[in-house]
Amino acid sequence: MRFIETRGNDGAKPASVAFSEAILSPSASFGGLYVPESLPSLDTDFLQGHLQSHYKELAYDFLNKFGIDIEDEVIQAALARYDSFDDPQSPVPLSQIEEDCFVSELYHGPTRAFKDMALQPFGYILSKLAQKRGENYLIMAATSGDTGPATLETFKNQEGVKVACLYPDGGTSDVQRLQMVTEDAPNLKVIGVKGNFDDTQNTLKDLLASEDFKTELAAREIRLSAANSVNFGRIIFQVIYHIHSYLELVRKGEITMGEKIYLVVPSGNFGNALGAYYAKKAGLPVEKILISSNINNILTDWITKGEYDLTSRELVQTESPAMDILKSSNIERIMYDKFGAARTKVLMEALSTEGKFVLTEEELASLREDFDASFADDQTCENVIGEYAKKGYIMDPHTATCMGAYRNLRQKPLKTVVYSTAEWTKFSPAVAKALGYHASGDIDALKWVESHADVSVPPMIRELFNKPVVHKTVVPKEKIKEEMLNFL
Ligand SMILES: *Cc1c(COP(=O)(O)O)cnc(C)c1O
In what order do the strands lie in the sheet with 286-293? Predict the structure, then answer.
């Protein structure tokens, strides 16, 4: 399988690349992204053939069909990372919460957020590629929450890759900060930045753009890669759990093979939703993908009105911070798929120069063939969490944004899968509040919820509070470059 570019080719980069190249150097011509030239078919034979398969077997076969240029042994070892999930036999369990509604829990990995689903195997593959080529890569991440911990966790002690992670000091939850600053390995660096998430992200962008930083990296023979969902190496693993969730419904006798279902995806950078779109396009029987957002509902406007307008918005901090995003990176891959490279280039350039774009009526209609969207504010999510807690199911605020879409957007009485992207333990003060308790911090909230609901705090979260803090650096943004160079 070859990978091509969403904004066309500039003549300097190759017109198409192999999977390994697309994931080591994920930026394509004109600031675009890599996408597969075609998709493997998920026909009934494929699905039927995997009714008895373990998650890893399904994943292995899917990657094989994709034809990626990664050695068999490496793929097998990458997928073995799922063995560290709560139940190695069932890394992605499905819980029924309504007669026709099932929650697919994507958070049973080491950092308790769905980022592990892709970053765990992806991290292994990327570092093996670096080792094989005898190259050294630097991955830099600015994080407000879940990406940082999951990126550090997957690359720790892996040769050939160094990770530097910047977080806004005071801008993450206790659990998220501890997940980063207690992660002890010589190839990891975590730096707190004095400022908010925007400051942190801008500092990173400035650093990546600065010529003298590039010169310093070149002098040390260090190449830059990326571990966010602009990297197709993450997206490929995010197709698989949609297939798995469908098969689980068939296995449970809830649907017959071929019957359509709805998927509800809580979205930010649209990687999870893109995975669902590729699965649907490849043949998975999906009626529609319903996108949920918080009050930063720019994706709702895009899907319901065809407008993507950054100029009229400011980012609002919510209880579902992993979805506090306005510039959603993977909508570009959807637009490429539907409207082609030339049009995508025009739209994305309008977004960066004018801060907005508007789709034509035909384009909007095409988008709405696959998607619909709605959003929920914090109060609505709090009510949803409280309501399901009474019925015995605890969900996190990101998952809670989905329930409005489930209730209001379905036009047919089909079975529905809602994706749960984080365990409640990552956002415990919000969950405690929804259950009626104002906690003084994460520890207080974790203990209170554990003793008032039928859930327990897993060991990796419990242990965080006793682990030594190894990354103590908190600096003003002017000092970041110096810290980085010291680390390298
Ligand atoms: C990253 C994340 C999301 C958003 O996923 P995208 O693929 O970026 O749309 C939603 N919920 C949680 C908890 C996350 O960590």
Answer: 94-98, 101-105, 416-420, 261-266, 286-293, 371-375
> How far is residue 306 CA from its own chain's centroid?
23
Distance CA 184, CA 469 (A): 9
CA–CA gap between residue 337 and residue 5 (Å, rounded): 11
Residue nearest to atom 14 of ligand 1 (CA): 322
Domain 88-112+233-460 has CATH 3.40.50.1100: yes
- Write out the two tokens for 280: 């649907």
Measured from the CA of 272, which atom of ligand 1 is nearest? 7
Atom of ligand 1 nearest to the CA of 145: 15
Distance CA 118, CA 485 (A): 29
Phi and psi of 443, rounded to 5°?
-60, -45
Mean pLDDT lowest for which of 192-201, 307-316, 340-349, 448-457? 192-201
CB 320 within 8 A of CB 294: yes
| Tokens standing for residue 13 | 């980069």
User: What is the pairing mode between strands 101-105 and 416-420?
Assistant: parallel
pLDDT (0 to 100) of residue 333: 98
Q: Which helix (H) or strand (E) holds 24?
A: helix 19-24
pTM above 0.70, yes or no: yes
